[in-house]
Description:
Belongs to the bacterial solute-binding protein 2 family. Residues 28-55 are annotated as: Disordered. GO terms for molecular function: carbohydrate binding. There is one protein chain. The chain is an alpha/beta fold and 351 residues long. It has 2 domains: 37-160 and 298-331, Response regulator (Rossmann fold); 162-295, Rossmann fold (3-Layer(aba) Sandwich), CATH 3.40.50.2300. The protein contains 10 helices and 12 strands. A 6-stranded parallel β-sheet has the order 2-1-3-4-5-11, with helices on both faces. It has a 6-stranded mixed β-sheet with strand order 7-6-8-9-10-12, sandwiched between helices. Helix 2 (99-111) runs parallel beside helix 3 (128-136).
Amino acid sequence: MSRPIKHPFRLVSGVAVAALLVLTGCTSNSPDSEASGDGGGGDTKAVSANDDPGDTVTIGFSGPAADHGWLAAINSSALAEAEKYDDIELKTAEGTNDPSQQISQVETFINDKVDAIVLLPTDGAALTDIAIEAMDAGIPVINVDREFSSPFAARATILGDNYGMGVSAGTYACQVIDEKGIEDPVIAEIAGIDALPLTQDRSKGFKDALKACGQTVDNRVAAEFTVESGEEQASNLLQAAPKIDILWNHDDDQGVGVKAALDNAGRDEMTFIGGAGSCNAMDWIRDGSMAATVIYPPTQAADGIKLARLIAQDKGLSDLVQVEVPKRIVLNAPVVTADNVDEYSDLCFES
């Protein structure tokens, strides 16, 4: 989901107590370092150089169908991360949106006796039982992005912060309103699919953050995470709102359509905020046609691969005192602006 970097501007959501965890090995921790007697135990797993070669482990990876730029990046980043390690043998299943097919894929991993499974489920609830079956077989499961419905289904879970995205976007909007001295601002929101919990979380975070500066969303429409729906819903929104001061679009893939609608209507009066962190968004920030985007890391499965390797090799995170990989990691949702776009552009994805 990367190297530690200093951010000239970062908004940390109230929920993002789960701060961004850097999962790369800490080179200051020598492989032959030993824990002192004052360190809380004799186990030295957490003070190894995690990227040093270890026992070869077989990891099974099952991800989504790559029918969306962010989802394609999830898959490609996982494959690229595994290739960095000579001690990983990766078994990949074909990307799918069919829970039944994904269940069969996990059954194959279990039968193959892989050492760990990294799974971004098409449906967390539907994949819960088979994930528990893997765990019962002694195969640790790393759950990515969409949570299972039981705590017994995963050894570790790594997530983006949907609520935190909304909080970051809303906090940035409040900052813009204050810096520009906008009175009675008109705030608009283009959500994703309203039936999805992730969309509901993003909208709630946005609404909650706006309360801090006494603001509310004046106009809201919901698209479907596609370019076509983004353009259609943005056009409807622009017709309903002759003036907009702040516009937050939840998803940079559908943002291609949103941007087309804005350009077609000649509407450039607003502060345009995106979501997820596409390469298009990074380019628009550079040329000034978008003010900011809020990151939803497309590298979660890559981090899942790293965690699976550590768990299968009986290691911990070398940057933590704790000797085991945490049970749950929630990645931060930082705001990318012209001030820090170059620091995030290497992690962008193609829409």
